[in-house]
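Request:
You are asked to prepare a plain-text protein record giving the amino acid sequence and the backbone structure tokens, at your earliest convenience.
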Amino acid sequence: MEKLKENILSWCSNMEPAARMQAENLSLHPCLYGNVCLMPDAHSGYGMPIGGVAALDNAISPNMVGVDIGCGMLAVQTSLEQMPREKVRAAVDKIYARIPLGFEHHQESMENPIFSDLKRWEDTEICKRELISARKQIGTLGGGNHFIEIQYGSDGHIWFMIHSGSRNLGKKVAEYYNKQAVKLCLMFKQEKTVKDDLAFLPIGTKEAAAYIKEMKLCLDFAYENRKAMAKKIKEIFLEELPQTQFLKEINIHHNYAAIEEHYGRKLWVHRKGATLAKKDTIGIIPGSQGSSSYIVQGLGNELSLQSCSHGAGRRMSRAKAIKELDLAGQQKILDDQGIIHRLNEQALLDEAPDAYKNIDEVMAAQQDLVSILVKLQPLGVVKALNEKKYPQAKL
């Protein structure tokens, strides 16, 4: 850990200048209490670095949560001790066929426990408008860095893992309430927070109360979204290997804000691309599609506000990765490990292995934050294609 300035603590080496500038802006936030904490995977985001953790006193900031509210991880340990390659391939093909990816969604409305209490939806400004769309998006993966993997664990078990969030629902909520925060901050003469994309909602205002209510609904939606996909994947496993049992399931967020006690007082802790690492809490830290992922146990380090990284973190922008990385070279990284994948177009290189930091270096940098329980090696990878952005690429 390195102290970048009096109230910025960083576990991230070789931080890009843009991320450091964002951290410095955040360190001057009028509601910040204590330190800005930068995890080993930190890189520039919108307003606040992704891989950043900060506590606000009596305030909550939509941009410090992020647009994909509730984005997180689900991992399931199975009873299988091995999975033949042809079964991995069959499972990957069925996942592609049955779980909508990218901009795709279900054609019909889906039943899900998240819709059982419609009053929660009706008592909101944005979520109620998005209810019809949300019913078709539950149980879908999304695009970007979201993925599904089948993995082999150092514990001798086959696992599968899902990275996904609240889909368009969280984005709509985040954008609406950031606009509300901007209006309030301009009214309260907090122009710098607006300029730095760190506008906030004071606790006690109706706007803050409304955002918190909608954020929590998005968190629950994201949690159920991962569970719905996991149910489909379990069905696929049972079709291919009927003897499969599902032993353990972990489901966590890494984009959220919550009231926690730090520095001797209750504060709104914002984790934007960061995982809770409270003592003995079980977490998930994924790598890239060509590297290992980890099941971890938190050490409760108060210096990091009991947090750790949420992944490897990008080392290249999406545009730079597509322009500069070599497709054949990135395919070789995956093929040499026997990973079943569909990285077969230049336009997909924004999610190539070398677009991300070295996950083992990231893990080594946070030995004081978490201990490793299981190391997971990818066997098969499912990732979406952003067809609206890259229409020329095909799967």
